[in-house]
Design brief:
Layout (H helix, E strand, L loop, with lengths): L3 E8 L5 H11 L17 H6 L6 E9 L2 E9 L7 H9 L3 E7 L6 H12 L3 E7 L8 H12 L7 E2 L8 H11 L12 E10 L3 E10 L1 E3 L3 E4 L4 E4 L2 E5 L3 E4 L1 E3 L3 E5 L13 E4 L18 E7 L5 H14 L4 E7 L3 E8 L2 H15 L3 E3 L6 E5 L7 E3 L11 E16 L3 H10 L3 E7 L4 E9 H5 L2 H8 L4 E13 L1 E8 L2 E2 L5 E4 H18 L7 E7 L2 E8 L15 H14 L3 E4 L2 E4 H5 L6
Parallel strand pairs: 1-3, 1-4, 4-5, 5-6
Antiparallel strand pairs: 2-3, 7-8, 7-16, 8-15, 9-14, 10-11, 10-16, 12-13, 12-15, 17-19, 17-20, 18-19, 21-22, 21-23, 23-25, 23-26, 24-25, 27-28, 27-29, 27-30, 30-31, 32-33
Helix pairs in contact: 7-8
Bound molecules: guanosine-5'-diphosphate (GDP) and magnesium ion.
Length: 597
C-alpha cells in the first residue's frame, strides 16, 4: 500500500485537466504511441466534440521513482456544475488532488468550489500553474493568487504545460512525495466506495470503486449497502487504458467489478460495496441520491413514435442513471414524458443522444424547476409541481415555494456593477462581496434556481465580456409569488408553452413571449393570434400574419414531380415541428421563454 498514490485533477472548466492527464499517461508509458489521441480519457463522442468531460474516468499508471515502483491511480473529473456530485465522489476516493490553474485565467469560481470539496475531504493539494507556454500567461501574478488562496509557499506551485509537457516530471515527483499513501486494513471486512459506473452494452454495468478496507476478489459474493442488493463478482480488475482482470483488489487500490448488472440505476455513485456474508458495519459517509434539478417534457414529433420513444428512453436510462422520466400527456402535444435532468447541459445531452443514438425526433418543452405548492385545504401537505399544469388553481392555492441556490461569481472589478445589476434583475440578493485581489472580486448571491435555468450563463458572459465565472449549490426552498403564464395560439391554449413566472415579471415576460413567438411561428394561410394569459385575463397579444401566396399554388396543373419535390423539401424543413390544432410550432418556440433578451 505504501507505493500506491490515488489522486484526482480538479480545476475550473478548460483550465487543462484532460490535457495534463494525457501528458501524465504519455510520460509514464501508460499509453503507447499508437493509442495516443488528444483528451484520451474523454471517450464518449459527445465529450470529444464538445471538448468537455461528462463522465469521471479512472486510469492506473506505473512509475518508477528513485528505484521504487509506484502505482498511481488517476481519477479525471467532470468540470461542469451539472455533474458536481460525481466530482465530490471522485474526490472522496483520493488522498490528493492536483489543483490546476490556467496561467492566463487565474483562479475561477469552480477552482474555488472544487478546492473546498477537496479540503473537506482532507486531500493534500498540489497546486499546478498550467499553460505556462501561453504568450498571455501571467505566471508571477497567478502564482501570487494561488499562494493567497492556499496559504502555501510560492515554491510549492509547480509550473507546467499540458501542451508542451513542460513540468510533467515535477508533477509526478510531487504526487509521490507529497500525497500520502492510502491507509486502510486488508484484514478488515470489505469496504469500497463506488465513485463511478460505466455502461457497456456487451458486459453490462462496470462499477468503479476504491477499496478502503479489506479486499474484493473474483468470485466473491458482494453487497451494495444503499441499494441493499447482493451480486456475484464475475470479474474484478484494475483500470488501465484497457481493463486488466485480477484475482483480487486490495485496500488502498482502485479497480472495477463486473457483476452482470444491466441497468445503470442499480449502481449508485457514492454507495459502499461490502462482503455479503461478513458485511462491514460502516457505510462510507456522504452517500446521496442524485436529484434532478430541471424538468421538461419530451414528446415525439410524430405522435406514432410514442412507444419507440419510450423504448429509447428506457435504453438511455440503462446507460445514464441520472435521467428520470415518467409518462405525461399534454392537451397540445399528446403523449410524452416528463423528464428530470441534472441541469440544462444534461438536458441538451439527453436530447442529442436520443436523436443520434436512437434516431428519434423529439420536441423538448419549456424547462422548469421543481416547485412546492400548498393548498388552503391542506396547508401542510406538499404538492410537488414538476410541470406548470400541476400548479393548483389560484382559487385553492395557499402558497408556492421555489428552490434557491447560493451563487458564487468571480469577475473583474470593472464588471462588478454589470454583474450585480444582472443578478438583481434575476431576483438575486447579494450576500457577500470580497476583493480577492485589487482586480478580482468574488460576489455571492442567493438566487432562485429558476433564474439560472432561464438564460443566465449567456447573459453573464455578455455583461462581463467573458470575464466572469460562476458556480452554485442549492440552499433549500423559499416562498415566492408565482403565477402561471399561459399561451394561446389561434385562441387555443397550448399547455406545453405555459411557464411559471414570478408575479412581478409576468406581464413583461408574457409580452416578450408573444413577440418572440411571432418571430418563430411560421406564417400560414391564415392569421394566427398569439396571446399570453394569466388565468382568464389576457395580458398580451400579437399576430402572425397570413402568407400572401400559397407556395404550392404555382405548381397546380404543372409538373407533378416538381410538386412532390417541393412538398418533400417542406417536409424536411418541418423536422422538429409540432402541429397543434392547425398551427405548426417549431422546437425553438418551446425554448423561447428562455431566450427573451
Ligand atoms: P479541461 O476542461 O480542464 O479538461 O481542459 P482541457 O484539457 O480539455 O483543455 C482545454 C483547452 O485548453 C484545450 O483547447 C486544450 O488544448 C488547451 N490546453 C490545455 N492545456 C494547455 C497548455 O498547457 N497550454 C496551452 N497553450 N493550451 C492548453
Ligand atoms: Mg476535461
Amino acid at each position: 500500500m505504501k507505493h500506491i498514490r490515488n489522486f484526482c485533477i480538479i480545476a475550473h472548466i478548460d483550465h487543462g485537466k484532460s490535457t495534463l492527464a494525457d501528458r501524465l499517461l504519455d510520460y509514464t508509458g501508460a499509453v503507447t504511441a499508437r493509442e495516443k489521441q488528444d483528451q484520451l480519457l474523454d471517450s464518449m463522442d459527445l465529450e470529444r466534440e464538445r471538448g468537455i468531460t461528462i463522465k469521471s474516468h479512472a486510469i492506473q499508471m506505473e512509475y518508477v521513482f528513485e528505484d521504487k515502483e509506484y502505482v498511481l491511480n488517476l481519477i479525471d473529473t467532470p468540470g461542469h456544475v451539472d455533474f458536481s456530485y460525481e466530482v465530490s465522489r471522485s474526490i472522496a476516493a483520493c488522498e490528493g488532488a492536483l489543483l490546476i490553474v490556467d496561467a492566463a485565467q487565474s483562479i475561477q469560481a469552480q477552482t474555488i468550489s472544487n478546492l473546498y470539496l477537496a479540503l473537506e475531504n482532507d486531500l493534500e493539494i498540489i497546486p499546478v500553474l498550467n499553460k505556462v507556454d501561453l504568450p498571455s500567461a501571467n505566471p508571477e501574478e497567478v502564482t501570487d493568487d494561488i499562494v493567497d488562496l492556499l496559504g502555501c509557499d510560492p515554491e510549492e506551485v509547480i509550473h507546467a504545460s499540458g501542451k508542451t509537457g513542460f513540468g510533467v516530471d515535477n508533477v509526478l515527483k510531487a504526487i509521490i512525495e507529497r500525497i500520502p499513501s492510502p491507509k486502510g486494513n486488508i484484514d478488515e471486512p470489505l469496504q469500497a466506495l463506488i465513485f463511478d459506473s460505466v455502461y457497456n452494452p456487451f458486459r453490462g454495468v462496470e462499477t468503479y470503486f476504491r477499496v478502503i478496507n479489506g479486499s474484493i476478489k473474483k468470485g466473491q459474493n458482494i453487497k451494495f449497502i444503499a441499494t441493499d442488493k447482493n451480486y456475484f463478482a464475475d470479474e474484478v480488475g484494475t483500470l488501465k487504458l484497457k481493463q486488466v482482470p485480477k484475482k483480487e483488489i486490495q485496500a488502498g487500490d482502485v479497480g472495477y467489478v463486473i457483476t452482470g448488472i444491466k441497468e445503470a440505476k442499480e449502481v449508485k455513485v457514492g454507495d459502499t460495496i461490502t462482503d455479503a456474508k461478513t458485511p462491514t458495519t460502516n457505510a462510507i459517509e456522504g452517500f446521496e441520491d442524485v436529484k434532478p434539478m430541471v424538468f421538461a417534457g419530451i414528446y415525439p414529433v410524430d405522435t406514432e413514435d410514442y412507444e419507440e420513444l419510450r423504448a429509447s428512453m428506457e435504453k438511455l436510462q440503462l446507460n445514464d442513471a441520472s435521467l428520470v422520466f415518467a409518462p405525461e400527456s399534454s392537451a397540445a402535444l399528446g403523449f410524452g414524458f416528463r423528464c428530470g435532468f441534472l441541469g440544462m447541459l444534461h438536458m441538451e445531452i439527453i436530447q442529442e443522444r436520443l436523436e443520434r443514438e436512437f434516431n428519434m425526433t423529439v420536441i423538448t418543452t419549456v424547462p422548469n424547476v421543481s416547485y412546492h405548492a400548498f393548498t388552503r385545504k391542506s396547508p401542510d401537505k406538499t404538492v410537488i409541481v414538476n410541470n406548470p399544469s400541476d400548479l393548483p388553481e389560484p382559487s385553492i392555492l395557499d402558497r408556492v415555494e421555489e428552490p434557491y441556490i447560493k451563487a458564487t461569481i468571480i469577475t473583474k472589478a470593472d464588471f462588478v456593477g454589470n454583474v450585480m445589476s444582472l443578478c438583481i434583475e434575476k431576483r438575486g440578493q447579494i450576500t457577500n462581496q470580497t476583493y480577492l485581489t485589487t482586480e478580482r472580486v468574488e460576489l455571492t448571491f442567493d438566487m432562485p434556481l429558476a433564474e439560472i435555468v432561464f438564460d443566465f450563463y449567456d447573459r453573464l458572459k455578455t455583461v462581463s465580456k467573458g470575464y466572469a465565472s460562476f458556480d452554485y449549490h442549492p440552499i433549500g426552498m423559499k416562498q415566492s409569488k408565482l403565477v402561471r403564464v399561459d399561451i394561446l395560439l389561434n385562441s387555443q391554449p397550448v399547455d406545453a408553452l405555459s411557464a411559471l413566472i414570478h408575479a412581478d415579471n409576468a406581464a413583461n415576460i408574457g409580452k416578450k413571449m408573444c413577440e418572440k413567438l411571432k418571430e418563430l411561428i411560421p406564417r400560414q394561410q391564415f392569421d394566427i393570434p398569439i396571446q399570453a394569459a394569466i388565468g382568464a385575463k389576457i395580458i398580451s397579444r400579437e399576430t402572425t400574419k397570413a402568407l400572401r401566396k400559397d407556395v404550392t399554388a404555382k405548381c397546380y396543373g404543372g409538373d407533378i414531380s416538381r410538386k412532390r419535390k417541393l412538398l418533400e423539401k417542406q417536409k424536411k424543413g418541418k423536422k422538429r415541428m409540432r402541429q397543434v390544432g392547425n398551427v405548426e410550432i417549431p422546437q425553438e418556440a418551446f425554448m423561447a421563454v428562455l431566450k427573451l433578451n
